[in-house]
Design goal:
99 residues; alpha+beta; 434 Repressor (Amino-terminal Domain); 4 helices; 24% strand
Length: 99
């Protein structure tokens, strides 16, 4: 899994913004496409996903379309509703500061 994460600081708290690529069957799929496809599999609208998760419908729309990244806590809420599991990538082993 490759990721393009960034962190911003808001009100004294570091907030991680997620824009991940997930490798599946030797091809990469963006997490926003996975969320979009899973929502469609569940047969729910962005508005309904918003109501169930507490994530703004506009944020879901912008994330699914690839226009914007999403906060990690929002992604966790979406994954919970869509029955998806987020697992951290295996950290690379480092020896003496080298990979």
């Amino acid at each position: 899994m490759a990721d393009c994460n960034s962190t911003i600081r808001k009100n004294g708290v570091n907030i991680h913004i997620i824009n991940m690529l997930v490798q599946k069957n030797n091809s990469e799929m963006k997490i926003n496409d996975i969320i979009h496809n899973r929502r469609k599999e569940f047969g729910i609208s962005q508005r309904e996903l918003s109501r169930l998760s507490g994530v703004r419908a506009a944020a879901i729309s912008e994330f699914e379309s690839g226009k914007k990244s999403i906060y990690s806590h929002s992604l966790e809420k979406l994954c919970k509703i869509l029955e998806l599991v987020l697992k951290p990538a295996n950290p690379s082993k480092k020896t003496n500061g080298k990979e």
